Amino acid sequence: AKAGFQQHHRPLTGAAAELLRSTVADAATAKGDGGGVDLRAPAKQAAGRLLDGLLRAYAAGAPAAEARAALAVLSAHWLARGLGLWAGLRPWDRVALLLAAAGLHCADASAPAALA
User: Fold this and answer.
1) Among 64, 54, 61, which Cα is nearest to 13's?
2) How many CB atoms lie within 10 A of CB 88?
């Protein structure tokens, strides 16, 4: 486990993390991005670093916050697909939607910023 986290027991390391990584990989290979260069590996690495940062932020907060964040990621994806919005979003806008959902519960209510 990276940085001492027991990632197999963390809500954001399951389906929500895989959805985020695959969405990043799709965006990195979208037509017009990268000038024909395969950016999947570096994009997935960057997504992994961001996910590690989110995990560290959630480790410092309330235990249920990470579970709510994972639910928010999966719910945002489900809702966007169900309403037909997902197909209309540009690839990096899909990534932005999921990242916004992932960061919603990052800090306790009294904190001024989600990620410090």
Assistant:
1) 54
2) 10
Task: Report how far residue 113's alpha carbon sits from residue 91's, in angstroms, rounded to the nearest whole number.
Answer: 26
pTM to 2 decimal places: 0.74
Q: Is the pLDDT of residue 7 over 80?
A: no
Asked if residues 106 and 65 have their Cβ atoms less than 8 Å apart, the reply is yes
Cα 74 from Cα 68, distance rounded (Å): 10
Q: How far is CA 3 from CA 7, 28, 55, 56, 108, in A?
A: 10, 27, 10, 9, 22
Question: From residue 45, how far is each of 4, 30, 36, 68 by CA, in Å?
Answer: 19, 17, 19, 24
For residue 11, give both structure tokens: 């809500």
Beta-carbon contacts of residue 24 (< 8 Å; ≥ 6 apart): 43, 44, 46, 47, 95
